[in-house]
Predict the structure.
Amino acid sequence: EAGVVQSPRYKIIEKKQPVAFWCNPISGHNTLYWYLQNLGQGPELLIRYENEEAVDDSQLPKDRFSAERLKGVDSTLKIQPAELGDSAVYLCASSWTADTEAFFGQGTRLTVV
Amino acid sequence: AQSVTQPDIHITVSEGASLELRCNYSYGATPYLFWYVQSPGQGLQLLLKYFSGDTLVQGIKGFEAEFKRSQSSFNLRKPSVHWSDAAEYFCAVGDVDYKLSFGAGTTVTVRA
């Protein structure tokens, strides 16, 4: 069974440009998470989905970040416009439900120049 | 709000030696506690978790952790490390909604 798949693995963009990350969770997993991991730090939750509903987006900077999970499967995370401080690794994770083990993807490393 | 402190940023250990990684948490109720490992270029992998019951928890790859409520600690141990254990280790605490708060991580280097 495939794990959580994220693409792209690496992305370099200029500041003020838009960028999007894609996540395909493990089949059947209802809960999907997006985390931000800054260099030398632990992951921080950006948003959690239960099926297609965003149930916790309190840490998502909504002025420039947006996310969607159409049909409760794949998800995209978008930044528009990107800032230098957005350079980080963006991790996607999924689980059967919120109270079961979350499996993480390899992440997308974003560099904003 | 819950928080996690991992006091050691970097630990170097010889192959075959024992390893202990420290984790202290702050949480008002009984915590859900986790240890994850992240190898370079990889996602996080769950090593073990504590929800309730026996305070000594066994995990994968020969790791174990002990929950000590009196010390607000959940330290990770391995009796004999292998070169493949070189990675970054994260402790996390979860609340009743299973929202995880991670520590800053401890990088483990294994020398031959």
